[in-house]
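Input/output pair, single chain:
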Amino acid sequence: RGDLRGAIALGERVVQQRPDMPLSLVHLAFLYNEAGDHRRATAAIGRALALNPAAADVAALAGAYLTEAGRADEAAAVLKPYVEGPQPDVDVVNAYGVALATAGHTREALDVFARARATDPSSGLADANIATVHLMQGDRDRAAASFRAALAADPTLARAYNGLGVVAAEQGDLAATVD
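Output:
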């Protein structure tokens, strides 16, 4: 049984005692985000990233939290420097693509997800993200093919099963949604 308010209070006390410790800010940002407090989540993760700007995992979280907060263009701007290097972290690349897609830059997002897929072809996440963009564009056939590719790479990817269900429902093939 989680006590989210209690965990947030404890996290805030830890940050008060150690304001220079990025990990405590990352945990606090996670708790705020779980509570739906996007303003405080993005502020905390932003402070963590400022303390450790080389941390790609923190940058990926910052991008995700900003995107969830409705600030996708800002998320893309934060993430762009992290994806421009020769070997960017695949989580950062995916977060950047999600920010771009959410901000309406779907063509650029598809290019970014193709780069993520090339970086880590075994994960399936990039294919699921590509499928989501195709779905956003109304291309159900390409979306379904990409969701299937995601499942071929990772048969445990629930998002891909959900996406195939959405495609089938939108195409009126309700029998396929229960297969």
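The mean pLDDT is 93. DSSP finds ten helices and no strands in the chain.
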